[in-house]
């Protein structure tokens, strides 16, 4: 039996920008090996697999090489598909049971909002390979949470011109590395970032919702506002609206369907 698959560009309102995710809505749980094969075949940052439960949907995320514990853009893409393909009424809350607990999504006229756990980074000593692998001589701050290193550099220009050594980054014992700075004066954004995860099968992730679970509380402490706007300055680029709410982070963004097909 064939299975429908949809590719959605997340955290953008333009096709071929933001971060593409493949979304498979299944009639029942699928074998892990099959999901890994599909994710490898799709070769996107993440492929999401959902099936209906009594009070929502089971949701799992796979890169081309590993299953991950938290993914923002593929959750946004999944919610977009549920509403656009009438699995849920337009104003129903999407409930996702995941490896990071219950996550919810709400649909408004201008964007989708995800309710995610905050992932605070705490100050950490940079391992010898970290800054040199990024190609930077120094950092304003280095921290680490349960997933990633977080590195603040001095300027947006420095973030944008990074050309990391992905082979060396891949040996670090973390999911990935977030590099960030305050946005340039006059920018519509509060901060910018990039995210590299070669050890998880993704050299550079175009737009990373879960990284903003660390970026939002970090920049709240420096900027002094709960509500901010971040820009992930990858080649594709994407905008994430964030709001800190205690131990949660609300991630807001748009999405657009670019492809529908069948897995045969």
Overview of the structural elements:
This protein is of the alpha+beta class and 264 residues long. The mean pLDDT is 97. The chain has 2 domains: 3-113 and 252-263, Diaminopimelate Epimerase, Chain A, domain 1, CATH 3.10.310; 122-246, Diaminopimelate Epimerase, Chain A, domain 1 (Roll), CATH 3.10.310.10. It has helices spanning 32-42, 72-84, 128-134, 156-160, 166-169, 212-223, and strands spanning 3-10, 19-26, 46-53, 56-62, 67-68, 94-98, 101-107, 112-117, 122-123, 141-144, 148-152, 176-182, 191-197, 202-205, 227-232, 238-245, 248-253, 255-263. It is 20% helix and 41% strand. Strand 4 (56-62) and strand 5 (67-68) form a beta hairpin.
Please describe the topology of this protein.
Blueprint: E1 3-10, E2 19-26, H1 32-42, E3 46-53, E4 56-62, E5 67-68, H2 72-84, E6 94-98, E7 101-107, E8 112-117, E9 122-123, H3 128-134, E10 141-144, E11 148-152, H4 156-160, H5 166-169, E12 176-182, E13 191-197, E14 202-205, H6 212-223, E15 227-232, E16 238-245, E17 248-253, E18 255-263
Parallel strand pairs: 2-3, 4-6, 11-12, 13-15
Antiparallel strand pairs: 1-2, 1-18, 3-4, 4-5, 6-7, 7-8, 8-17, 9-10, 10-11, 12-13, 13-14, 15-16, 16-17
User: What is the chain-wise order of helices and strands?
Assistant: EEHEEEHEEEEHEEHHEEEHEEEE
How is the CATH topology of the largest domain named? Diaminopimelate Epimerase, Chain A, domain 1
Overall CATH class of the largest domain: Alpha Beta
Please state the average pLDDT score: 97
Helix content: 10-25%
**What form results from the Cα inertia axes?**
globular
Structural class assignment: alpha+beta
Major sheet, described briefly? Answer: 18 strands, mixed
Radius of gyration: 18 Å
Stretches where pLDDT falls below 50 for ≥5 residues? none
Number of domains: 2
What is the CATH architecture descriptor of the largest domain?
Answer: Roll
User: What fraction strand?
Assistant: 35-45%
Counted by DSSP, the helix tally is: 6
């Amino acid at each position: 039996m064939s299975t429908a698959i949809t590719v959605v560009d997340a955290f953008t309102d333009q096709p071929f920008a933001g971060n593409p995710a493949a979304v498979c809505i299944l009639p029942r749980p699928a074998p892990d090996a099959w999901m890994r094969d599909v994710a490898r075949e799709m070769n996107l940052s993440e492929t999401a697999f959902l099936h209906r439960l009594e009070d929502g949907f089971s949701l799992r995320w796979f890169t081309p090489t590993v299953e991950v514990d938290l993914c923002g853009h593929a959750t946004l893409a999944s919610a977009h598909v549920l509403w656009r393909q009438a699995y849920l009424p337009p104003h129903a809350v999407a409930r996702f049971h995941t490896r990071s607990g219950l996550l919810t999504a709400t649909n408004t006229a201008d964007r989708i909002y995800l309710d995610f756990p905050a992932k605070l980074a705490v100050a950490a000593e940079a391992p010898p390979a970290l800054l040199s692998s990024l190609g930077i001589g120094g950092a304003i701050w280095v921290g680490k949470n349960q997933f990633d290193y977080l590195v603040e550099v001095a300027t947006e220009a420095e973030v944008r011109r990074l050309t990391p050594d992905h082979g060396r980054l891949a040996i670090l014992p973390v999911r990935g590395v977030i590099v960030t700075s305050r946005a340039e004066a006059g920018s519509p954004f509060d901060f910018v970032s990039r995210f590299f995860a070669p050890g998880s099968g993704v050299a550079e992730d175009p737009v990373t919702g879960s990284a903003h679970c660390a970026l939002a509380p970090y920049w709240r402490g420096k900027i002094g506002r709960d509500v901010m706007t971040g820009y992930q300055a990858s080649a594709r680029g994407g905008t994430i609206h964030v709001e800190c709410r205690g131990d949660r982070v609300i991630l807001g963004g748009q999405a657009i369907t670019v492809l529908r097909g069948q897995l045969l």
